[in-house]
Amino acid sequence: MFAVADHLLHLEGEALPRDVSAEAVHALLADGVRGVRCGAPVSGAVYGTLLNDRHALDALGDAVHAPPYKAPPRAPILYLKPRNTLAGHGARVSVPDANGVQVGASLGIVMGRTAARIQAREAFDYIAGYTLVADLSVPHASVYRPSVRFRARDNFCVIGPAVLARRYVSDPDDLAIHVELSGEPRFSASTSTSVRGVAQLLADVTDFMTLAPGDVITLGVPHGAPIAHAGQRAALTIGGFPALNIDFVAEGDTA
């Protein structure tokens, strides 16, 4: 089992995440508190979901019927965000070149129980909570066979600041998503544009693979995610979750 009573937060310097109240999380991460950094509040496997946004499929247009795709996806398309990518609130992320880094804000579904071949109607019983995942990537046009080089660089999966217990999120399929860069609004979307909602996604994924307690699967990055460059700070929010901050720095400047 992986259980979350309230808000699971992993402050930098502490050995393990701890469960604290919503009020404590907001106080610790308030604008007046400088320099607060966190580790990722989870340690299980993290899976990204590709093309689970209607606008992303629409953007492919007729290309989805041509090689290399040949047809719209009939099952969830997943990719792994390995351990080297995991980071937390306040992370410093190296920007490899002048093309910048695409900042994908996604809802992270945190599993509380082992899930194999579950039905959509029972899916929420397997969820411990939700978190915010900044699924970062090097900008690229093709989404066929997601590239490790583009998506699995160090600190390219920033999670947190906390895992919210499931009871705090009444409808995960209708949450507003916002991304600011250096204090300026740059992107807005909603989880309501997902091809598969949370319950159906878990049902379809667990039809062919088992998810373990503490694993995270993202609902997917909405189409049109903004590009960040060295020197910028991103602030990501989903619904009423605490904001997740990331500092983008020049290659080699991650101290």
From TrEMBL:
Its cofactor is Mg(2+). Residues 46-245 form the Fumarylacetoacetase-like C-terminal domain. Pfam families: FAA_hydrolase. Keywords: Metal-binding. InterPro entries: FAH (IPR051121), Fumarylacetoacetase-like_C (IPR011234), Fumarylacetoacetase_C_sf (IPR036663), HPA_isomer/decarb_N (IPR012686). It comes from the Bacteria. Gene3D superfamilies: Fumarylacetoacetase-like, C-terminal domain. Transmembrane segments: none annotated. NCBIfam families: HpaG-N-term. Belongs to the FAH family. This is 5-carboxy-2-oxohept-3-enedioate decarboxylase HpaG1 subunit. It comes from Paraburkholderia tropica. The lineage of its organism: Bacteria, Pseudomonadati, Pseudomonadota, Betaproteobacteria, Burkholderiales.
